Amino acid sequence: MPIYYPDVLAQGTRPRSFQYGDKDAMLYALGIGLGADPLDEAELAFVHERGLKVVPTAVTVLAGRGTPEPLPRPEGHRESRPNFLMLVHGEQKVELHRPLPPAGRFTTESRTVGAFDKGEGKGAVLVNETVWRDEAGEMVATLTSSSFCRGDGGFGGPSDGAPEPHRVPARAPDRTVEIATRPDQALLYRLNGDRNPLHSDPESARKSGFDRPILHGLCTYGITCRAILQSVTGWDPEPIASHQARFSAPVFPGDTVAVDLWLDGRDVSFEARIPARNATVIKNGLTTLR
Predict the structure, then answer these.
(1) Has domain 7-149 been given CATH number 2.110.10.10?
(2) Which residues are marked as active site?
(3) Residue 200 needs a FRET pair 20 to 30 A away by CA distance; which of 120, 157, 183, 243 works?
(4) From-to residues of CATH 3.10.129.10 in the chain
(5) Model confidence over 21-52: pLDDT tens digits?
(6) CATH 3.40.50.2000 corresponds to the domain 175-289
(7) Is the pTM of this model over 0.90?
């Protein structure tokens, strides 16, 4: 089913309640590689309940993968359903209105906030926003994701106005952090909820054009946040107000990820690459500090 414009901008979900506990926060931290050295006190703080710290990008998984109830549709509304076989996660941004607690109960609701037409045969970009609120109704986090719908161009929507990617500085990076992933990293990370067989089943990966399973893009995204924690904030998650990036190439479990950082006051630009393959896997990254 194609994208219908402007009807697609009326699509969203009703508030859905959920909760998470310290086990969920620790599992996420383990999934992005923290705790590999159980004697490292800095990393232990994210994977042990004593004084537990929560990685800011855990917000991408802690709401779980429940089935949300769609908003009521206006009379005559045409439902848009992009071709999910041709859809790829293009960009992700999380804004933390306050640091994530080790456990809590919240509500989440989502809506489509943008639809941009690249033209027939050129695809489309859909932008979705998800808001977390606490039990008092106060905002906790806002997640914005962009999806590139390769099979849905030519629906008649606007071609201009899509969010512009952040430009990293032209100078050499101020710091580079290298983080090794494990061969079983995707098998652990998938326990956070994304069980797409592309990340675990060799046969499914081959059918998708890869010779072996690839790491979840959001795992790589979390690894870049880990680099900020390690190299910029002294392992303190509280200064991180937002973290955004564009996905550009896959990471294979076992790769070593080099995260290049540019420090400009409260803005930390970043990109991530795999030196062994000369591949840039994350582009246009920006972390904003409080």
Answers:
(1) no
(2) 194, 199
(3) 243
(4) 7-149, 175-289
(5) 999 999 999 999 999 999 999 999 999 999 99
(6) no
(7) yes
